[in-house]
Specification:
Layout (H helix, E strand, L loop, with lengths): L3 H13 L6 H16 L2 E5 L6 H13 L6 E5 L2 H23 L5 E3 L9 H6 L4 H5 L2 H7 L5 H22 L13 H5 L21 H10 L3 E5 H9 L10 E4 L5 H8 L2 E3 L1 H11 L5 H20 L4 E2 L5 H20 L6 H22 L4 E8 L3 E8 L3 H9 L4 E5 L9 H6 L22 E5 L6 H4 E5 L13 H14 L3 E4 L3 H14 L5 E3 L5 H10 L4 E4 L16 E4 L10 H12 L4 H18 L10 E5 L3 H4 L3 H5 L6 E3 L2 H11 L4
Parallel strand pairs: 1-10, 1-11, 2-4, 2-5, 3-4, 5-10, 12-17, 12-18, 13-15, 13-16, 14-15, 16-17
Antiparallel strand pairs: 6-9, 7-8, 8-9
Length: about 675
């Protein structure tokens, strides 16, 4: 179903950014426009270079123009949200205004902690130093101050900025704040549970969060993120304004983001902090008992192995039951009528401890509980949902027509694996020619609009057949030698994606010894953003790292002509949540390995190999040094999830191709 206004808006938007319309982008825009009219769910795979942002923005703006309908767009991260807000949406709004004479209103909506809290900023104590001089004067001396003093300077600057935002009617969005650390921002923001509420807060009428929500309620396009979408789904759809349709961008990350939002952690430190905040209003015996709960959990964690907890008699679940009972009594003692904001916030912190402890002690079939051990954070107990597909099916797709789009939704050759992971079953899929009155509430269509890139002529996929299978003892000498040879052939210009930090460091050390003329950067040498800048600036540099580099790294041109992947990225055997999900599928009679582990690996492989070709001029090689891609039965499923590069198992072909790119053959 072609939409003339959509076509006109898309054409004007593309012209406005001096781009060119692509067939895939036009096909996507038509499909989104049709989905909005029919109320049918749509899955769109739009490869790199398609221009998918305008591919959905043009039909969305054409759809809401001149109406009172509202569409929500959810992106994976705040960074992508900012990109839409600052670049793509202004171009699309200019286009729809040019074509129709109407300019719909767009708004950005984030979670509460992304906005400053006036109560927290104004009620916190100001350092004596800050009362004598301004923040600009102190900033000059900041390098000579200790960490505590630097934090004080930072907080003072943030508080001054908050007041400026309040005076000018701004939103005090964290992205617009002066340079700060997480510790500094915590002094001027507030967790959702501790918010006093508009009626009880002395600064409720000026609240930045409420202003952001008012703007969203008056907008026809609201841009948010997956985390807030998750909160909206979990809490009765109260976090987002009512909307007639939903667009989920970077949809391949949706289940991971929803899972993270629904996951809770409990540590002795969390209990101690809540107890100390509540001490003033608790009787001595109860206060002492609540404080002792931190030691109760600490002792239980020391008795526990870092693994999944499935027994109600395990030390951790027994301790959680005790913490649940004590924190319930503490929360009850704190409740009641009062006008003390600090007591209200302390009550919220205690109730949060109670909720998490009760969830852990409950060991519900729908949850997974496990103990983790971190070198930096120590031991903790976690609880996460076994599956989020039911939540998505009932609270998202069951309520709102949804378009899900990403460069990687087709796994193993079709949409079924992804659709199942988000709660859409294969039986819900409908053909293109199904009449609108025959559509079921959860009916969906899958559309792959391809990519403007000619992957087969632009890239080679070298999948080894002769190297040894990966083991748990790091990279073998044969794999290290292969990596060095490929890097030498490419003249640097390599992005190395490794299964672990140890493997990345081992490969970097080997290449530095064998190829001393090349600069080899490794994750951990400096801040990741700094390493990426250095990698982009010098084409002959290599960058080796782990999962942080598998997605979101955009390095076009000769800087990245070789992508090395050392191992198929299956979930770690010691990942309790992924293993629990795999077991649940097996127990239900399905294939847990394919549904969970292979699907997870296929998605990451598709994202990782996608780092190579970012522009139509790019050329290069992806080298996957795990023979299981070629030899294992599941290898075809994984290969069918990757861009259509020209395939080979011959390392000499890969080496010669890389040398030709350097003009040496």
């Amino acid at each position: 179903m072609a939409d003339e206004l959509t076509h006109q808006v898309l054409q004007a938007a593309v012209s406005g950014i001096e781009g060119r319309e692509r067939p895939g982008q036009l096909a996507m825009a038509d499909a989104v426009a049709e989905s909005l009219v029919l109320g049918r769910h749509l899955l769109v795979q739009a490869g790199t270079g398609t221009g998918k942002s305008l591919g959905y923005l043009a039909p969305v703006l054409a759809h809401v123009s001149g109406t009172d309908e509202r569409v929500v767009i959810a992106t994976a991260t705040l960074a992508l949200q900012a990109q839409l807000a600052n670049k793509d949406i202004p171009a699309a709004l200019d286009a729809v205004e040019e074509v129709s004479g109407k300019r719909p209103k767009a708004a950005i909506l984030k979670g509460r902690t992304n906005y400053a809290c006036l109560y927290r900023a104004r009620s916190g104590g100001v350092s004596a130093q800050g009362s004598l001089v301004g923040s600009e004067d102190i900033q000059e001396a900041a390098p000579d101050l200790d960490s505590v003093s630097r934090l004080g300077v930072e907080v003072l600057a943030l508080r001054e900025w908050v007041e400026e935002e309040a005076e000018r009617g701004g939103l005090a969005d964290r992205d617009d704040a002066p340079t700060h650390t997480s510790a500094g921002w915590q002094q001027v923001s507030i967790p959702t549970r501790e918010c006093l509420g508009v009626a009880a807060c002395p600064f409720g009428q000026e609240c930045f969060v409420e202003k952001s929500r008012e703007e969203a309620r008056s907008a026809q396009v609201v841009v948010t993120n997956h985390a807030l979408l998750a909160i909206n789904a979990m809490h009765g759809r109260t976090a987002l304004p009512e909307h007639s349709a939903l667009i989920v961008d970077e949809a391949h990350e949706l289940t991971s983001r929803i899972t993270t939002a629904a996951t809770n952690e409990l540590t002795p430190i969390i209990i101690e902090r809540a107890a100390k905040r509540a001490l003033t209003w608790l009787e001595d015996d109860l206060a002492t008992e609540f404080l002792a709960c931190a030691d109760t959990l600490r002792d239980a964690l020391e008795e526990s192995e870092p693994t999944r907890i499935e027994s109600s008699s395990a030390p951790v679940t027994y301790a959680a039951a005790q913490i649940r009972d004590v924190s319930r009594r503490a929360a009850s003692a704190l409740s009641g009528k009062h006008d003390d904001p600090e007591r209200t916030q302390a009550t919220a912190a205690v109730k949060e401890v109670f909720d998490i402890a009760a969830r852990i002690a409950g060991l519900a079939d729908a949850d997974v509980v496990w103990v983790s051990d971190s070198e930096f954070r120590g031991r903790a107990v976690w609880v996460a949902p076994l599956n989020v597909s039911g939540l998505l099916r009932s609270e998202v797709f069951g309520e709102t027509p949804t378009v899900l789009t990403s460069a990687t939704l087709v796994l193993g050759g079709d949409f079924s694996s992804f659709a199942g992971s988000v709660g859409l079953s294969r039986s819900d899929e409908v053909a293109d020619d199904v009449a609108p009155d025959e559509l079921e509430p959860l009916s969906w269509r899958g559309l792959d609009v391809g990519s403007p890139f000619d992957y087969r002529s632009q890239g080679i996929l070298y999948a080894t057949k002769s190297l040894p299978k990966p083991g748990r003892d790091g990279l073998t000498p044969e794999v290290l030698a292969e990596i060095a040879q490929l890097v030498w052939a490419a003249g640097g210009r390599t992005l190395g994606l490794f299964a672990s930090r140890r493997n990345a460091e081992q490969a970097a050390a080997h290449c530095r010894r064998e190829l001393p003329d090349f600069k080899i950067l490794c994750q951990g040498d400096a801040q990741l953003s700094e390493l990426q800048r250095e990698f982009i600036a010098d084409p002959e540099t290599c960058l080796f790292g782990t999962m942080s580099l598998w997605q979101g790294v955009d390095v076009p041109g000769e800087t990245c002509q070789l992508v090395i992947i050392d191992k198929i990225p299956f979930p770690r055997p010691d990942d309790p949540l992924m293993q629990a999900r795999k077991k649940a599928v097996d127990d239900a009679g399905g294939n847990g390995f394919m549904s969970v582990a292979a699907t997870h690996a296929a998605l990451l492989l598709a994202q990782g190999t996608g780092r190579l070709i970012r522009r139509s001029e790019d050329r290069g090689v992806v080298a996957i040094l795990d023979p299981r891609l070629v030899t294992a039965r599941y290898g075809r499923f994984l290969s069918n999830s990757l861009p259509g590069f020209w395939p080979t198992t011959d390392p000499d072909i890969a080496v010669r191709a890389l040398r030709r790119l350097r003009g040496e053959e």
